[in-house]
UniProtKB/TrEMBL annotation:
Membrane topology: Multi-pass membrane protein
InterPro entries membership: HAMP_dom (IPR003660), HATPase_C_sf (IPR036890), HATPase_dom (IPR003594), His_kinase_dom (IPR005467), HisK_dim/P_dom (IPR003661), HisK_dim/P_sf (IPR036097), Sig_transdc_His_kin-like_C (IPR004358), TCS_sensor_his_kinase (IPR050428)
Superkingdom field: Bacteria
Transmembrane regions: 12-36, 172-191
PROSITE patterns: HAMP, HIS_KIN
Catalytic activity: ATP + protein L-histidine = ADP + protein N-phospho-L-histidine
UniProt KW Kinase keyword: yes
EC numbers: 2.7.13.3
Protein name: histidine kinase
Length: 472
């Protein structure tokens, strides 16, 4: 029972077929109804009856003979009408001469109310005139035929719209009922055949090993279904790349942590075993340095993992210029000790809507990277500006720089520039790029101050727009 109650594509197609047949039935019913209304005005049974009776009266000269012909026709028509049992009421007949004198009128209630307005000289020969008229409190279709010496009036009781629609529906229904099962079978076979490739795809996926992320490589004969396989292969390719990155990340992290951990183990052993006080102090210093390096590496790994796995944080409007001044003030002591000049080029205030945590990661790592790799006597220039609806923050220096063939590689995790001797894990710029992507921004590298060193440019446009910038 649950199988039949659960929604399926086949059920939706069958329901669509039922709705389509109902729509077709409605359209045909409306068309037939309008055709019926038109026929009642131009070529109905009333036209045919009046035309035949007028043609029969045309050669008749005697009034009594004409009166008898109309009376007999009235009796015959109403008898047949009652025998049929479908049409309501009786047809009314009236015969008048050219002077408008009534020779015959069907007896019954309301007969005296049948009052045709005739021209002064009597009706002229011509096409029949059809109109609606109330007779005895009931609506009739009336027609007038003027031929020879006689003017013939015939009135037929109007049939209600509900009755007409019922007749037309009963005429259409048998044809639709005959066509429905034929179309249903053909459509069901087409749907079943069309879904067979999807069942094959589901079976192939279901039988795969849990760790099998290879492409499906299934060629479906229906062009509409091929994008499903293509999208699935693209998803599997993304998962493969993600797994490969995670494996490489774990291997690189283990490799980077192995050295400081080995130093910690060695120096701890030396502190315990070394009798010389100076040697123990040296071992303690090496131990502290290894612990600090390990702590820094673990912190960067956690930061990078957070940027990888969590969506963009809460947006807030902050003063970018004020934040940069505060950060440079914190780094001023280290820069002074290393004989490095720090400068900031930014408006007095620069408010921007952004993810503050990710922005702090970008600026902190760029500035920390510059302080670590430039030499004494070098300059580090930080700049911030808003233009064309985008925020740009740059950190440039005139240090040793990065070779052009390595400028894209430095954003890879654990990559170290060839020939560098400064301590580091190779994760800082990877964190910068990932944080920029999380914010919807970009980061790029170019030559630094006076075409020496290097400059990193962070640009953010997708997450916000400048609220206000006050020049310094």
């Amino acid at each position: 029972m649950k199988r039949w109650l659960s929604p399926t594509l086949t059920q939706r197609v069958m329901l669509a077929l039922v709705l389509a047949f109902m729509s077709v039935w409605s359209v045909l019913l409306a068309f037939d109804y309008l055709a019926f209304k038109q026929a009642m005005r131009t070529n109905s049974g009333l036209h045919q009856l009046s035309g035949a009776l007028a043609a029969a009266l045309a050669p008749v000269e005697d009034a009594e003979h004409a009166k008898s012909a109309v009376a007999v026709s009235a009796v015959m028509v109403n008898h047949l009408r009652r025998e049929g049992g479908q049409l309501p009421g009786e047809v009314l007949f009236e015969l008048a001469d050219r002077q408008g004198r009534v020779l015959y009128r069907t007896p019954g209630p309301g007969a005296q109310e049948w009052n045709w307005a005739l021209p002064e000289n009597g009706p002229a020969d011509g096409p029949p005139q059809v109109r609606d008229q109330a007779i005895g409190g009931r609506m009739y279709w009336t027609i007038m035929r003027a031929t020879g010496r006689w003017t013939l009036h015939i009135a037929e009781p109007q049939v209600g719209d509900t009755t007409v629609l019922g007749w037309l529906s009963r005429e259409l229904l048998p044809y639709l009922l005959l066509a429905f099962p034929v179309v249903l079978v053909v459509l069901w076979l087409a749907v079943r055949s069309g879904l067979r490739p999807l069942r094959l795809l589901a079976k192939r996926i279901d039988t795969r090993a849990p760790d099998d992320l290879s492409p499906v490589n299934l060629q479906l004969k229906y062009a509409e279904l091929q994008p499903v396989v293509t999208a699935l292969d693209n998803l599997l390719a993304q998962l493969r790349r993600q797994v490969q990155r995670e494996r490489a990340f774990v291997q690189d992290a283990a490799h980077e942590l192995r050295t400081p951990l080995a130093v910690i183990a060695t120096q701890a052993h030396a502190i315990v075993r070394e009798p010389d006080t100076y040697a123990r102090q040296q071992a303690q210093a090496h131990l502290d340095h290894a612990i600090a390096r390990s702590s820094h590496l673990v912190g960067q790994l956690l930061e990078l993992a957070t940027l990888d796995e969590t969506p963009a944080g809460t947006l807030a409007t902050v003063d970018v210029a004020g934040h940069l001044r505060h950060l440079l003030a914190q780094k001023a002591g280290l820069a002074l000790a290393c004989d490095i000049e720090l400068s900031l080029d930014a408006p007095e205030t620069l408010h921007w809507t952004l993810d503050m945590a990710a922005f702090q990661s970008i600026v902190h790592n760029l500035l920390d990277n510059a302080l670590r790799y430039v030499h004494a006597g070098c300059r580090i220039a930080v700049a911030a500006a808003a233009s064309d609806g985008a925020l740009t923050v740059s950190v440039a220096d005139d240090g040793p720089g990065i070779a052009e063939d390595q400028r894209e590689l430095v954003f890879e995790r654990f990559y170290r520039v060839r020939g560098t001797t400064a301590p580091g894990s190779g994760l800082g710029l990877a964190i910068v790029r990932q944080a920029a992507r999380r914010m919807g921004g970009t980061v790029c590298i170019s030559p630094g101050l006076d075409q020496r060193g290097c400059a990193f440019h962070f640009r953010l446009q997708a997450f916000g727009h400048a609220i206000g910038a006050t020049p310094p």
